[in-house]
Amino acid sequence: MRTLLRPLSALALGAAFLAAPAIAAPLTRTHNDSFSVTNVRVFDGVRAIPHATVVVRDGEIVAVGQNVHAPSGLPEIDGTGSTLLPGLIDSHGHSRDRRELVRSAEFGVTTLMDMWSLPHYVARMKREQDRGDATDRADMFSAISPATLPEGYPYNFTPQIEHPTLSSAAEADNFVDARFAEGSDYLKLMLEDMSVTSPFTIPTLDAEMVRALTRATHRHRALAVAHATKGELAELGVDNGIDALMHVFVDVPISSALTSKIVRKGIFVVPTLSVEESFVDGNGGAEVVADPDLGPYLTSDEIAYLLSSPGLLTPEQLAIAKANVGALRAAGVPLLSGTDSPIYGAALHRDLELLTLAGLSPREALIAGTSAAANAFGLRDRGRIAPGLRADLVLVDGNPLEDIKATRRIQKIWKTGVEVERPLPSLFGAANRSAASTLSPVCGRGL
User: CB count, 10 Å around CB of 283?
Assistant: First the structure.
């Protein structure tokens, strides 16, 4: 049963989390793993606990705290000087190939909220998750097919491929019913006329269609999330029932009136600053490539992609986006980290840094990549380090609560208690050498 969530401020997540609705991944384990991490700084998704011990049995967290003792007989990891984080959640991704989810996990991203994929692929990934066969990769939840016009974005780029679309508000109920019948976890609405990044415009959903789509989605007790890179279209979505904006718009500064409406309606925002930065130039990608903790784990194709840019946005537009994030943060709007990138896993670490450059504290950025995402999407079994939750964990050297780039200094990653291997690209098999060499056409920047 899907339960619609109206998210709360990130600072209220501690109380809100226990009441979160569920898009839960049932788990029948085929692997058991148990261990303790001692003398470690724990960021539990909301706050820091110094000098703590975390005990994991059979892939589940059973104890967390300063007065917890490591049980005898369990493998024990000394976390002195390190920080234990919940597995990171990318709240705006795209995947059509399992290897992309493996790459995510190799950088500590243990859950991906997909925004456009294929029904049969999503169904297969969920079957693996349900039976415990996804310990080496990120879990996936998906919107599958977004709501858009036949000539609308993004299908204007792929006219040769058949996709489900709708042409009027009267078709909304049937369209939405079909999406949830094929396995969607939430509905994505495309509010994009291309005017921000091109000299032409294309048709997009109108207010009546957005109202009909969001109402039909809410009858399924699910979230309606919207792609909008233009302020006018973002406001159209806010005025007509959406639950989330999956980008921060870049064309105009956000008004206090729109900010107030977003707060009043309980809407959350996934800014995707990392992909917006990549539309400007390759400087942000170059920073990732040069990073001593990320660069060695990138493939040659990933490096080439990171260093490239379509140059469709200006530095001034990126500055507007960052200022809009700062205004949303000041108003208490829940902000989530998401990449919209085919550079799986690594791009999220850049996105976390960009959130801090837009005004979030490192703690707030960590919340955006963990508990805020779990709360917003109703993932009740993850996003926190607490008894009874999944042992999706990342152990990093240093203190990301002071230096957000410490999230990149990964020592160990666990997915439901099973350690995730992190091979260097030179150790990949020839067939799997590059995740980016098979970048899905769905993945491009800005979807």
Answer: 12
- Assign residue 82 a region (left: φ > 0; alpha: ψ between -120 and 50; beta: otherwise): beta
DSSP alpha helices (H): ranges in 280-415?
283-290, 300-307, 315-331, 346-357, 362-368, 371-377
Separation between Cα atoms, residue 384 and residue 391, nearest integer Å: 9
> How confident is the model over 8-50, as pLDDT tens digits?
232 222 323 223 334 544 444 444 589 999 999 999 999 999 9
Is beta strand 393-397 parallel, antiparallel or unpaired with respect to 268-269? unpaired
Q: How many of the other CB atoms lie within 10 Å of CB of 49?
A: 17
Adjacency order of strands within the sheet including 244-245? 187-190, 224-227, 244-245, 268-269
Q: DSSP letter at 345?
A: T
At how many degrees (to 10) do helices 172-181 and 207-219 cross?
40
CB 59 within 8 A of CB 29: yes
Pairing between strand 393-397 and 82-86?
Answer: antiparallel
Rounded to the nearest integer, the mean pLDDT of the chain is 90
The helix (H) or strand (E) run that includes residue 37 is strand 35-43
Q: Which CATH architecture has domain 10-423?
A: Alpha-Beta Barrel (3.20)
Domain ranges of the chain: 10-423
> Phi, psi (5° rounding) for residue 85?
-115, 155
Encoding tokens for residue 67?
């007065």
The token pair at 438 is 């098979």
Give dist(CA 357, CA 352) in Å, integer: 9
Sheet of 88-93: strand order equals 88-93, 109-114, 139-142
Q: Is the pLDDT of residue 147 over 70?
A: yes
| DSSP label of 341 | -
